[in-house]
């Protein structure tokens, strides 16, 4: 670990702790803790959404995938980007108008049933745990590579930092950590993309022409089929990515941090621009790494290609740029895991403790204490799981989190907003059928069973697809449909009220 890396690392840690100190002074109520008092502006929340969404998997993983597999590596960029159109046009405004702190609040605005809130909370917690384990295990491995420290120390550093942000600064500190991370990430990406383009004489056509000659794949590098050889598997993965974002609890929670639906929409527009520009620039990062680092050097540093972006930064800008990229990767990890802790804690403390156990009668002080204890619990539980999961291949957990979000959460969100006949039974069956189908199919998939020992267990997988979204998403929608039409419950007056509120934000007396 060189001196520049240490200085930048300490600078980021110091800056985020100062932010947390000032945020802690402003976090006086439950609303401040969960949603920063709803006081963020559109551009602030847009940057925070981008900071929450652009994980280390996006920055390091996609750059490496494009460097090694060309067109196939870009699939993730396309899926993550298109996903925001679903969020913007179908979910953002109604969610802001109907909800308060969590996804369960939004669904409960129509059904007001404990069993619906409980299942929604369980679904959110499941997604957060899957996502968190993958992030922390990935964070430990990446920081181990970047800074040369032991895995368990790396996980503990990230774990302690995320706990401090959430415990003391709540959503305000988490949001500003995410905003700073988004700015640093875009700055680093733009600098590297500019240097890559300069190497190709600012001629994009020359770049596309030359990358075909620098990898072992030749012309096939710019065509689909190098990494994803099973078309159904590719379609299933894309379905999970495109539809899953609109059901991720930590992304949905961000729409409650602004004052109204108009600001929520403007924040999605800002986030879409930032996310869109970033994913387009990943082409330059990937192609640049293939051309100026080399396929063999990337594979030698990390078989998954995760070191492609840092190595490219070193090749183009020396130790200074490489250290900056390493610091950005660290900030990226911190921002994402802090958002996950907050969304998991809100499901425990607000939905299960506050609304179900205390029946909505907990005082603000009791709710704040519950939220902080839940944050501590989620953090400790995630850190322990991540320490024991070091040797497991957990990369599939991210796509599984997207799959569960698309299968369990999205159907109930869309039915709640747009289907008059939808009822309590339909809400419960939609979430349970989507959630259970996704988990059961994954437990029988090539991610868990493989004959060559590359998965968790050695054996023949029963389910052939690595991502079950192609099956579990339709099952989630079908479960909600059948549960609704097979029960007699119908409350048209409540739906009319919810529809007006979803479109206008009017809450009556």
UniProtKB/TrEMBL annotation:
It is found in: Cell membrane. It is a multi-pass membrane protein. Keywords: Cell membrane, Ion transport, Membrane, Sodium, Symport, Transmembrane, Transmembrane helix, Transport. The keyword Transferase does not apply. The chain crosses the membrane at residues 6-24, 45-68, 74-95, 116-143, 149-170, 182-202, 235-256, 268-293, 320-348, 369-388, 394-418, 430-449, 469-486. Gene3D superfamilies: Sodium/glucose cotransporter. The keyword Ion transport applies. Coiled coil: none annotated. InterPro entries: Na/Glc_symporter_sf, Na/solute_symporter, Na/solute_symporter_CS, Sodium:Solute_Symporter. It holds the Pfam family SSF. PROSITE patterns: NA_SOLUT_SYMP_1, NA_SOLUT_SYMP_3. It comes from the Bacteria. Belongs to the sodium:solute symporter (SSF) (TC 2.A.21) family. This is Cation acetate symporter. It comes from Oceanobacillus kimchii.
């Amino acid at each position: 670990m060189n001196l520049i890396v240490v200085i930048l690392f300490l600078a980021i840690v110091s800056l985020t702790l100062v932010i947390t100190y000032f945020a802690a002074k402003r976090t006086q109520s439950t609303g401040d803790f969960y949603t920063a008092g709803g006081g963020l502006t559109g551009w602030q929340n847009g940057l925070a959404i981008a900071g929450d969404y652009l994980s280390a998997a996006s920055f390091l993983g996609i750059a490496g995938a494009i460097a090694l597999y060309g067109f196939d590596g870009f699939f993730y960029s396309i899926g993550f980007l298109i996903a925001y159109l679903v969020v913007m046009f179908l979910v953002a405004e109604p969610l802001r108008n109907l909800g308060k702190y969590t996804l369960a609040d939004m669904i409960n605005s129509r059904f007001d049933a404990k069993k619906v809130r409980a299942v929604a909370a369980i679904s959110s917690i499941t997604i957060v745990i899957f996502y968190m384990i993958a992030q922390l295990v990935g964070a430990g491995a990446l920081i181990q590579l970047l800074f040369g420290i032991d895995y368990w120390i790396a996980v503990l550093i990230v774990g302690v930092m995320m706990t401090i942000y959430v415990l003391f600064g709540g959503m305000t500190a988490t949001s500003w950590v995410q905003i700073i991370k988004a700015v640093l990430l875009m700055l680093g990406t733009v600098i590297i993309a500019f240097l890559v383009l300069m190497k190709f004489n600012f001629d994009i056509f020359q770049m596309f022409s030359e990358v075909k000659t620098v990898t072992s794949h030749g012309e096939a590098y710019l065509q689909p089929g190098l990494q994803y050889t099973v078309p159904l598997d590719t379609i299933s993965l894309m379905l999970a990515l495109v539809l899953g974002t609109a059901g991720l609890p930590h992304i949905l929670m961000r729409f409650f941090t602004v004052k109204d639906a108009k600001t929520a929409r403007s924040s999605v527009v800002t986030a879409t621009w930032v996310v869109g520009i970033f994913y387009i620039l990943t082409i330059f990062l990937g192609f640049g790494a293939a051309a100026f680092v080399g396929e063999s050097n990337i594979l030698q540093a990390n078989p998954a290609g995760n070191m492609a972006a840092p190595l490219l930064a070193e090749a183009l800008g020396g130790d200074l740029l490489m250290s900056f990229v390493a610091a950005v990767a660290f900030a990226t990890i911190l921002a994402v895991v802090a958002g996950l802790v907050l969304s998991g804690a809100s499901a425990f403390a607000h939905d299960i403790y506050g609304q179900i156990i205390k029946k909505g009668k907990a005082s603000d002080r009791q709710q704040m204490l519950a939220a902080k204890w839940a944050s501590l619990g989620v953090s400790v539980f995630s850190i322990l799981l991540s320490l024991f999961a070091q040797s497991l291949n957990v990369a599939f957990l991210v796509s599984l989190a997207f799959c569960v979000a698309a299968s369990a959460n999205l159907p109930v969100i869309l039915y709640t907003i747009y289907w008059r006949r939808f009822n309590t039974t339909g809400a419960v069956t939609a979430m349970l059928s989507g959630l259970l189908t996704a988990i059961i199919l994954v437990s029988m998939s090539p991610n868990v069973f493989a004959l060559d020992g590359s998965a968790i267990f050695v054996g023949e997988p029963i389910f052939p697809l690595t991502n079950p979204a192609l099956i579990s998403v339709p099952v989630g929608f079908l479960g909600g449909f059948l549960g609704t039409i097979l029960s007699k419950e119908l409350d048209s007056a409540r739906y009319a009220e919810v529809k007006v509120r979803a479109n206008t934000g009017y809450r009556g007396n």
